[in-house]
Design brief:
4 helices, about 180 residues, about 35% helix, elongated, 6 strands, alpha+beta
């Protein structure tokens, strides 16, 4: 699947000085079942295909290539900053550290593969899957996802005619604003 313009921009604009990554830190309290924790993470990755892709360039064009899902790295100390090289690794890295009263999680996402809404959905799926592994109480259903909509990413949600009229509308708006100056 080829990168859309926004994804390509995020990839091209990425640099060590201005990384296009989104860091997220989570704190969980209570005893953590590591096997269930990792299993539920893998389920969330399976529900979110862009969590397991990297970029490949072919003849000057960039494509998403399915890869192995990322693994949780259990560490003694969480990193402060993590770079992601989409040409050689997936767009998500996860670090976990056992604490006295739970676990600290540090996730890093490349902005080419997701945005804040996608991150929230991924974390929600992961936590629901984790709760479901050991819970015998009330069943929690997984939110409905629409992966077929991925093919429409990058589209503006308007017809060709609406798209062509957009500059005219923008110009008219600018003229209207200019009256106040």
């Amino acid at each position: 699947m080829e990168l859309v313009d926004f994804e390509h921009y995020m990839l091209a604009d990425d640099s060590p000085e201005f990384p296009m990554t989104i860091p997220v830190k989570l704190e969980m309290s209570g005893e953590v079942d590591r096997v269930a924790f990792e299993s539920s993470f893998n389920l969330a990755c399976a529900r979110h295909p862009f969590s397991s892709v990297r970029v490949e360039e072919r003849e000057g064009r960039f494509f998403w290539i399915a890869s192995e899902p990322p693994k949780i790295s259990w560490v003694d100390s969480l990193p402060d900053f993590v770079e992601i090289d989409l040409r050689n690794e997936t767009g998500m890295k996860v670090f976990a550290k056992r604490e006295d009263l739970g676990v600290s999680i540090f996730l890093v996402f490349h902005h080419s593969v997701t945005d804040g809404g996608g991150i929230a959905q991924f974390v929600e799926d992961w936590m629901i899957a984790y709760k479901r592994t050991g819970d015998v109480g009330e069943a929690i259903s997984m939110p409905l996802l629409k992966p077929d909509q991925l093919k429409n990413r990058g589209k503006l949600g308007m017809s060709l005619w609406q798209y062509l009229l957009r500059p005219v509308q923008e110009f008219c708006g600018a003229v209207g604003v200019a009256e106040y100056f």
